[in-house]
Design a protein that fits this description.
alpha+beta, 19 strands
């Protein structure tokens, strides 16, 4: 039986992916693990690798096509294999990454976006009672439900009819542009609203402030995720100024000893990983109303691109030497900037570091990267006057700001973590490996 190439699910909220270009042509031989297609997901552009060795055939999605998660987009035939025989998958069913075979299953009773849940809570709406054509409750669905309740319980006027169906992209566009999908005439099968129907409806509606030109899909998704985090996660911040004179010495020694290009970010990854080993309660995630302990210490690095922000992940950072951290960091950043990240590169992050010191920033507050519990914002190293043995002296210091999700962390746990990290920064030489 041929191996299937599917549109991957890289995050829980992802519904579709866009095929950017095929790196192999139908009929080409491919090796297992070789990149064969470049796709754009809700987070970033990634390369999908061949799940098996063989010949690429039956490519069903072309460049520019938007494909539901879990749908087969090509087959890879073994040598001598001529017929497919592959069982058709249920279109749009997300692939579960559990290690077992992915099979279509009944979706959860309530599947909703964070914005939809927050809006439902504000209006006292039972999220399970909200109808949706896509199987996932979005903000527009909650608004439609609220309006329908007003119409039926108010003056007796019938509530506006709901749409027959709408594509996931159409729903996202409608939320962004403030379009009521109930009044949009769909051009799809059975009157379904497609993404192309939404701009026309928005143009005919009341004038709105135009979106900034050139907003990419990566930037738009970043904006949506940060808005969801800011409006759903109760943030609090812990600030600590730390003496880094010994950190500077460590970097100089490590660079000479390893011959690698060691940066302060590499040192911070090493030290943050060590602090997370000491305080595993910070290495957790908030999922479906519960605190989930992360099995590994995977540290994400915020990387700014021209068209948005991505967070590639250094997996099992606590097991890596400083030279290995530097090599992997450089590789991830380079591939992020060239759009060559792989799906595994952006999955599994449990804690994020955002360093703006190279831009001359003294300190800043970062927004938590959901579903993580915290993010560390790092300012520049600067000479400042500090007290040393009761006397004012000039020392290099750095300002760290730990942003925490109060649903997962309290002030005491956050303070213990940033205190341990500060101690490691001020006395780091024992970790020189």
């Amino acid at each position: 039986m041929p191996a299937t190439v599917i549109m991957p699910a890289l995050e829980l909220a992802q519904e579709t992916g866009k095929v950017l270009k095929w790196l192999k042509n139908p009929g080409d031989s491919v090796s297992k693990g070789e990149p064969i297609v470049e796709i754009e997901t809700d987070k970033v552009t990634v390369e999908i690798e061949a799940p098996a060795a063989g010949v690429l055939r039956e490519v069903s999605a072309q460049a520019g096509d938007v494909v539901p998660v879990g749908k087969t987009i090509a087959l890879i035939f073994a040598a001598g294999e001529t017929s497919a025989g592959a069982a058709p998958e249920a279109e749009g069913v997300a692939v579960r990454r559990t290690g077992a075979a992915a099979t279509p299953s009944v979706p959860p009773a309530v599947k909703a976006s964070p914005l939809a849940r927050k809006l439902a809570e504000q209006h006292g709406v039972d999220i399970a009672a909200v109808k949706t054509a896509s199987g996932r409750v979005e903000k527009a669905d909650v608004l439609a439900h609220v309006e329908s309740q007003k119409g039926s319980a108010g003056n007796g006027t019938p509530a506006p009819a709901r749409i027959a169906a709408a594509s996931p992209k159409a729903r996202r566009l409608a939320v962004e542009r403030g379009v009521d999908l109930r009044v949009v005439r769909g051009s799809g099968p059975g009157g379904a609203v497609l993404a192309a129907d939404v701009p026309a409806a928005a143009a005919s509606a009341a004038p709105r402030v135009a979106a900034a030109p050139g907003v990419s899909n990566v930037w738009r998704i970043m904006a949506e995720r940060m808005t969801a985090s800011w409006t759903t996660a109760p943030h609090f911040y812990l600030v600590r100024e730390v003496n880094v004179s010994r950190l500077v010495t460590w970097r100089e020694r490590a660079s000479k000893r390893t011959g690698a290009r060691i940066t302060y970010t590499d040192l911070l990854v090493k030290l943050v990983a060590a602090a997370l080993v000491q305080h595993p309660r910070v290495n957790v995630s908030w999922r479906d109303g519960a605190i989930v302990q992360n099995a590994e210490i995977n540290i994400g690095l915020a990387v700014a691109l021209d068209d948005g922000l991505v967070v590639p992940v250094l997996h099992r950072a606590d097991t890596l030497s400083l030279a290995e951290i530097a090599a992997r960091r450089e590789d991830l950043v380079t591939r992020a900037q060239t759009g060559k990240l792989r799906p595994a590169d952006i999955q599994g992050g449990g804690f994020t570091i955002s360093n703006l010191g190279m831009y001359g920033v003294d300190a800043f507050n970062a927004i938590v990267n959901p579903p993580q519990a915290a993010i560390l914002a790092v300012g520049r190293i600067a000479d400042r006057v500090v007290a040393l043995k009761g006397q004012p002296v000039v020392q290099p210091t750095i300002v760290l700001t730990l942003s925490c999700d109060h649903r997962v962390l309290d002030g005491a746990r956050g303070a213990q973590f940033i205190g341990a990290l500060a101690d490691l920064i001020e006395e780091p030489l024992a970790l020189l490996v």
